[in-house]
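Bumping with the actual sequence this time:
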Amino acid sequence: MVRRLLHAGHDVVVFDPNPAACSSVAAHGARIASSAAEVARATDLTISIVMDDRILRRVALAEDGVLAGASPGHLYCDLSTVSPMASAEVADRAAEAEVSYLRGKVAGSVPLAEAGTLTVFTSGERADHDRAMPVLSALGERVLYVGGGEASHFLKLAHSVLVAGYAALVGEAITLAHRGGVDYDLAIDVLESGPLASRQLTLKAPLLHSREFAEPPSDIDTAAKDLDLVLASSRAARVPMPLTGLVRELMAGEQAHGDGASDIWSVIRAFERLAGPASPHTSDEPR
């Protein structure tokens, strides 16, 4: 994403606690700051994208965080998948500092990020969205404003529900077909090419064929974290989500089995294990 911004001609200042992460983009022209506060002092717009609520609070609210370095009128856009509750806390502190706070979210994979073709959506003040457009349009081919407040967080959580739920549903369906006597690879091909085909299944069909789940763009641990956010947020909003709760339990089983770092689509192995030892695909031996 930083390389996309540099390619678009933006002057980019970066900070990451991991020096190697900064060095990799400094080689492409980014300037390195010593803290998130220093990034905010050096720019008119600061973007953060982190793993969870705890890190967001650290990056945004700490003594050397974004809000500590941002002047009144600064625009802060957070792209992280975090809880609406943590984001609302940052929003309150940003308002106290007279800093504009835009909740931004991205949907897509690492290849889409590298190509600058992510889908980006934001919520907050429409004027802040418009102000951020020249930067966000370098990251995504579609940049959408979806409403005020924490709307983008709930939309991203809905996206996470579909990502995890679809992977689980496809895994369950393929396991049924295979145990019913259909060749494993043929089952994938028929589902991927038939009337129920989707862009996601077409993208993931080669992975299901190869079963090379060890170096994923998105792993089960991350999906589980996202579903925990979904379920906490749904409880706060009083929205029952029984299917998502079941998918989260499947992910917990995979984590307990030692597969948390595997691709989210490796959840098919959960159904194969539940079905018993008859399947030759309960291991990842090449076929």
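The tokens above came from a reply further down the thread. The chain is about 55% helix and 10% strand.
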